[in-house]
Amino acid sequence: MGHPYDEKVQRFLQNLSYVPEDVAVIGLILGSLGSASALLGNILIIMTFLTDRHLRQRQNVFVVSAAIMEIILTFLKDAIALGVYGVGRWQFGVTMMYVYRVIFICKNTFSIGHVVALTIYRYVLIVYPNVYRILSKTAVIVITLIVVISFPICTSVIRLPHNLFFNTKAMYCLSEEGLGIYNGTLIKEAVRSETTPAFFYISVNAIILIVCNMHIYLYIKTSSNRVAVNNRSHNVDQTTTGPTSHGALCRRNTRREAKFMKIMTIVFGTFVISYYLMPLFMIIDKDWKLSHWVYLPLVMMNWFSSSVNWIIFSISHSGFRNAARKMLRCPAKMNVREINCFQRSQTSDSC
Q1: Residues ≥6 apart with Cβ < 8 Å to 321
Q2: 2 within some domain
Q3: Residue 255's pLDDT band (boundaries 50, 70, 90)?
Q4: Which of 51, 56, 121, 327 has a CA 20 to 30 Å removed from the CA of 197?
Q5: Domain for residue 58, yes or no?
């Protein structure tokens, strides 16, 4: 350490160094459940991809890549975090703080990058199918995966500060400056130089998700209206009661739009809860006055993101969902009205 801590700083760090026993017990239980769910769920995603040949499509590489990264980083990051909850403090040494910080940043950034990449590919597939033929080439997919994987590693290593301290409230390693300690003294207004870039990065990706999904929704709605107009212009027999009738077609399009909106809400809501709240609270609570109990739900929301991602993939992707049901020997309810991105001949994805 560059400067000796005064008495006020020592009391401050003491409060951040130890996890209260009741918080540690709850964190250990919930964290173990989240880690187990993440491992089992992502293994299931990989197994369905390997066993069902219909899922071996180029855009699904991002789903499988995300599952593989989640499994690896769950073992690395969650094992350390569970150890902290088990003992009630950090006990792995200074070097491991730097390793843990890199793993933590990579884990979140990998997840965000894969979700955004998959969303962009689906967006291009639906709205710009000609461009998708270019993006779906092997070379382009490989380059995209390299960027998605290398970007978090490079940024986490480049932005690695000195004098790290493990904050048991956020379960994250922060520098002295990030805690508001300058020259061994605690200042009143800590500058979140580490949190602000992360918050900005998450915001940019959230905007990309909103724009892509809203454009997909508008495209679906416009396409549905166009089909309805064409149906009326061809003088459909009014006595028809089958699926080609105008009324049935409108109901089917409405259900399709509603289903997509539901999926979009789930995906974006999970994204906000998993990645937005913690950095937001870290910016607001500059003096770290909020208790461990306030931060525990935020930590768990981020922790369970690995457990939720594979569920979202299954919800939004009928192929993975049906393959998983088949593997688990669950009765599948086949719904021919599910969204299949208007390109069923090219992909089994649902929007």
Answers
A1: 314, 315
A2: no
A3: low
A4: 121
A5: yes
